[in-house]
Amino acid sequence: MAGGFRRFVVGVTVMLAISATAHAQQPQPTPAPSAAKEEAQRKALEELKRQLEDLRKKCEATKALCEGVTLLARDLLPAVGQYQIVMRDGVRADTFLLDTHTGRVWKPFAFTALKGEPEVWILQQRLDSEEARTDWEIRMLLEGRTKEPGPGE
Question: Are the C-beta atoms of 100 and 83 separated by less than 8 Å?
Fold first, then answer.
């Protein structure tokens, strides 16, 4: 019987504590603002509205400036086509054909065994990932185009 009474007392104590906490957390009614306080709030609100309008005007000006720069750039800069011939500092051996849309690259190749030594563009393989590198190594091994690693390699 003593254990049951003790639980009862603990339960009542906890309920009273919760009730007191809930009562303390209830918002207290705020007194009506005075005329001076209302005037200060009105002025602060008007200042915020003015600042917001200034910010809106600055945003519109920035947008117009960006649009103007974009139009100017279109007029002044040459249009970039899909294919560009790229050369490093005028060195003919470092000339490439670049597809600006896909990133594929070709290098010129001359058929020296043919009359007139015609040149063609040969697509260069890219190894952009470990998987692509592994696939390429397997293909080269199957085609017999690689040498076996020597001792210490």
Answer: yes
Residue 30: per-residue pLDDT: 64
Contact, 120 vs 111, CB < 8 A? Answer: yes
Tokens representing residue 55 in the block = 């910010």
Structure tokens belonging to residue 62: 């920035």
In the chain, how many domains are there?
A: 2
- The secondary structure element, H or E, covering residue 110 is strand 105-110
Query: Within this chain, do residues 89 and 70 fall inside the same structural domain, yes or no?
Result: no
The domain in which residue 104 lies consists of: 83-142
Pairing state between β 83-88 and 119-123: unpaired
**Residues 146, 137 contacting (CB under 8 angstroms):** yes
Q: Which residues lie below 8 Å from residue 109, measured CB to CB, with a gap of 6+?
A: 119, 120, 121, 122
Q: 117 with 111: CB under 8 angstroms? A: yes
Average pLDDT in the 46-75 region?
A: 74
> Which tens digits make up the pLDDT trace of 73-119?
666 666 677 888 888 776 667 788 888 878 888 888 888 888 888 88
